[in-house]
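Quick one - inputs below.
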Amino acid sequence: MHTKKGFKLRDVCGESIIIAEGKENIDFNNIISMNETSAYLWKAVEGKEFSSDDLARLLTDHYEVDLETASRDASEVARKWLKAGITEE
Amino acid sequence: MRKEVPNALLIPEIAKMLEEGHTVTLGLKGFSMRPFLEDGRDTVLLTRPDHVRKGDTVLAEITPGQYVLHRIIRIKRQEVVLRGDGNIGTERCTLHDIKGFAQGFYRKGRNRPDRTNGLKWKLYSNIWCTLFPVRRYLLAVYRRLWIPLFGPL
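Output:
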């Protein structure tokens, strides 16, 4: 899967949010707030092709967590992103 | 899920994006731009406020951290007087306090905006502003009779 074009991570008011950014228009009616972990993962995979395993590896690299838990969390994140419409297969 | 962020935090960020040359669409709150615009229903399309004139609807900081999206009724040198279409009272600010210009409005969930340089808006503006002497009564009738019976315009 990969991140969809036009979705950018911005820091707004201290929060990491994904905004639907057309070439010109920034739509505040269409934004998704990300927690610290999610933002970290997004920044690492933005613009690249990645899998749930890649996300799991990024989690074990950055956090004190075993691979099994990381894999579970990674699939959850991947699923949420797909559902939110900010990534596609 | 809709999230609300205080204007004092949000608008400066939006102003920055407008400065960069983006346009921004943002949901509207409040009744101060009735009857054309309605609380929680409509969205404004904002651009950088390059050359604002009397009659333009602009996003302005009227006191530190407090913002309104109102119509300019008078400009004298650097001083600007604003009045919301749904208001009787006015606000004052300077040209420097104007952070955005309303290029159009997405009303009633439509995905094509009513542009403020378009005929519909201009006609409405003309008529509504001419009716200012009786605005107080029109708004009262609108609020007490029309909306309960027919819903907002």
